[in-house]
Design a protein that fits this description.
single chain, 211 residues, alpha+beta, Aminopeptidase, nine-stranded mixed sheet, globular, protein N-terminal-serine acetyltransferase activity, Ribosomal_N-acetyltransferase, Acyl_CoA_acyltransferase, GNAT_dom
Length: 211
Amino acid sequence: MRNWPLFDLSITTPRLELRLPSLDDLDELADRAAQGIHEAGYMPFMFPWSDADPAERARSTLQYHFRAWGSLAPEKWSIDFVVVYDGQVVGTQGLMATSFAVTREVGTGSWLGQRFHGKGIGTEMRRAVLHLAFAGLGAHHATTEAFEDNHASLAVTRKLGYQEDGITVHDRQGKPAVTRRFRLAREDWQESPGYELHNLPACLSLLGLTS
């Protein structure tokens, strides 16, 4: 798409493709949300959107991506990929930043359809956006945050070499809950073989960077 080159941006890994979603991709992602992301009685998200009924989860998934497309600007952006594994959209992986040209700092966020948990996909898709951040965009730091009872997310974070960066106490559905913050410096990032970026140069100006 000539006037929105982000739709041509993708990352490939040994098993995955991460790409900006088409409308058909978003429909499939919404199906994954409706089918379930986590076990009942547990909430890994700051905003409990996944606690809604399946149809509402599907709609809110679409709306989130539409808002991200419409609000993207060089000063503040979120690139939200769909993750394709074995020909199926299985989840989403985001990379976001504010004043990236100055801060050179990104954050990440993701979810994966529950039936695809336990296959190492979460680690591989996080590695993919770290490759984009450090190898493609020249980031200096990547940050992430998760509730301390989100053991799967914390395991991925620690596996990838992030360092602890403090805690925050939140109101989670009327009860206090602690999140742990982490930071990964460029010098501590380890590049992995088989990760490739496609069609990035045309996107740089949309992210506040020059080619």
